[in-house]
Amino acid sequence: MLLIITVNVTMNIKRKILIILAVPSLAGVLMFFLVPFVTSVYYAFLNDAFNMDYVGLQNIEDVLTSKYFRLAVRNTVIFTIIAIPAILVVSYSMAYVLTYTMKNNKLLQAILFLPYLLPSVSITMQWKEYCSTVAPIVSLLIIYLWKYTGFNITLFITAFASIQRETLEAAQIDGASSIMLATKVVFPNSVPMLFFVGIISFVNTFKVYRESYLLWGDYPDQSVYMLQNYLNNHFAKLNYQNVAAAADIFFAIIFVIVLIVLRFEKKWSDMVW
Amino acid sequence: MKKTLNKIIVIYIISLTLIILSPVAMTICGSFGITLTEITIDMSGYVDFWIWKPLYFNAFLRSLFIAILTTVGNLIISVPASYFFAKISFPGKTSLFMLYIILMVMPFQVTLLPQYIAAKSLHIYDTLFSLILPGIFATFSVFLITQNMKTMSDDIIEAASLDTSNPLKIIYYVIIPSVRPGIICSAILVFSEMWSQVAEPLVMIESENKYPLAVLLNSNITFNLYELATIVIFLLPPILLFLIFNDDVLEGMSKYNLK
Fold first, then answer.
1. Residue A51 lies in a domain
2. Same structural domain, A62 and A195
3. Which of A28, A154, B62, B108 is the most buried (most CB within 10 A)?
């Protein structure tokens, strides 16, 4: 009895020491991401990066009351609400078919991944032709789906690959139909990945800025003036305190979203397991 | 009934693939001098790339250096960290992990100037290491591999920890084989991310003769044969990586087939 308790205690101590595994990563994150980010938070309260005068919440107030910032936030929210569910549905279903219906999908998968790698500028000419007939926001959505569907498919296929074959076989022996396998076995097992892909897709909506810039320049149509246009235009004008203030607001929003998503994920996993 | 449904799905996927492929196909045709009006095969763009003009070839080697070093370094750092995040209980771990997620989600416009200041103070500004080091510590793969490890059962790790107390051994012999698909996937994605990054080099690197290939291809190009050939060659390394390692990702599922 005593022996078991001692073993347990030593194991617990050892487990705490294992934080050492994460130390290299934590140190690098601190140096290259966290400290720079905190610096940028600090900039939000200065009047500019050179004089370093403290101005309190003035910058944040300026940003929040700016007409362009509001427009940018509204457009970004609209685009995100349409684009993320769309890409999740398309890429999840395609990944599912590629994995479980089509056996030899290697080449197809590589082809689907190609758009992610193609330098944006090399196809701008084609996009200009394709997109002249539709609304700007629709063309942005098409470009987004075109570029990141294959990327997401790759992630989903990895998730499917780590579902143990025994689990699937056991379900099939128990008489599960293919629809039941899809909804009761594969889907619950890929929920962590679904959240991950959701977050990554959100990050990727910000990268469509490159195409938007190539198509329409600094000042696109009002309907596609996004947060990234706002940030980039102010960054280019060296209005850094403005960018930093917008970044802080952005950070607060992301913080809340991530918190909600993680809560939801935890609830979901508790429910499934 | 089921077979026809499957056929419809397959046709749907293939036609989507063709739509996705068409801009790429046009670039490839263009690199050989094939246009809608004339069909000739002109290899001069490729000859220029490999033999006569060193500009893009040198940038190609630089990009390879950056992407390979970053991918290897990133995995060495991320795999143990993911093990920590997925399987070891530690006070405050959830908050730390959330921090990783938030840092991952921040768009580059937000962190760019601070990172530039960091690079200056570390004396790596205007060197390739100003791209490689942040890439190595990017939290993306920690998150991806952690999500993969979460689905692993704890019993295997418990059993292994009875045999050895060295966590590195557990990682090498138990964890890595179990989440191999996730690790390879994150390697491919880190490589591709570094391979195609444009914004970061423009800020971190001043000398034009140190620019990676993606930056040169995204600047003002005139779409001559040499440039089109370079675009096609630019696509090859990530695609080859993808094709080579795809077997690993798909291994273990090929036998199983849900119909």
1. no
2. yes
3. A154
Mutation for testing the A interface, residue in B8, B227, B253 having most A CBs under 10 Å: B253
Please answer yes or no on whether A182 and B188 come within 8 Å at the CB atom.
Answer: no
A24: helix, strand or coil: helix
Same domain, yes or no, for B201 and B138?
yes
Nearest to A272 by CA among A163, A165, A179: A163
Residues B106 and B207 in one domain: yes
Instruction: List the one residue out of B71, B37, B15, B28 whose CA is nearest residue B195.
Output: B71
Q: What is the pLDDT of residue B259?
A: 36
Domain with B29 in it? 1-42
Residue A219 has pLDDT above 80, yes or no: no
Q: Report the C-alpha gap between B202 and B132 in whole angstroms.
A: 14
Same domain, A98 and A170: yes
Residues spanned by the domain of A29: 2-43
pTM for the model stands at 0.82
Give tens-digit pLDDT for A174-211.
877 777 777 777 787 788 788 878 888 988 888 887 77
Same domain, yes or no: B182 and B148 = yes
Partner-chain contact B88 A158, CB within 8 Å: no
- What's phi and psi for A46, nearest 5 deg? -110, 160
Whether residues B9 and B136 share a domain: the answer is no
What ipTM was predicted for this assembly? 0.77
| Euclidean distance between CA atoms B249 and A205, whole angstroms | 26
Closest CA to A122 of B26, B83, B208: B26
Does B181 contact chain A (CB < 8 Å)? yes
Angle at which helices A106-117 and B180-196 pack, to 10 degrees?
30
Contact check, Cβ <8 Å, A122/B258: no
What residues 204-243 of chain B have any CB closer than 8 A to a CB of chain A?
Answer: 214, 217-219, 221, 223, 228, 231, 234-235, 238-239, 242-243
In this structure, the answer to whether residues A217 and A184 fall within a common structural domain is: yes
State chain A's mean pLDDT as an integer: 78
Q: What proportion of chain B, given as a percentage, has pLDDT over 70?
A: 92
| B117 CB burial (10 A radius; 0-12, 13-18, 19+) | middle
Q: Say if residue A34 is in the same domain as residue A69.
A: no
Tell me if B187 is assigned to some domain: yes
Q: Are residues B16 and B81 in the same domain?
A: no
Q: Å from B53 to nearest chain A CA? A: 20
Task: Indicate if A146 and A204 belong to the same structural domain.
Answer: yes
Number of domains forming the structure of chain A: 2
Same domain, A94 and A216: yes
CB distance A157–B250 less than 8 Å? yes
Give me A194's structure tokens: 């679904």
Chain B CA closest to residue A29: B137
Nearest-CB residue to B109 (from A14, A181, A228): A228
Q: In this structure, are B73 and B135 located in the same domain? A: yes
**A38 with A69, same domain?**
no
The reply to whether A235 falls in a domain is yes
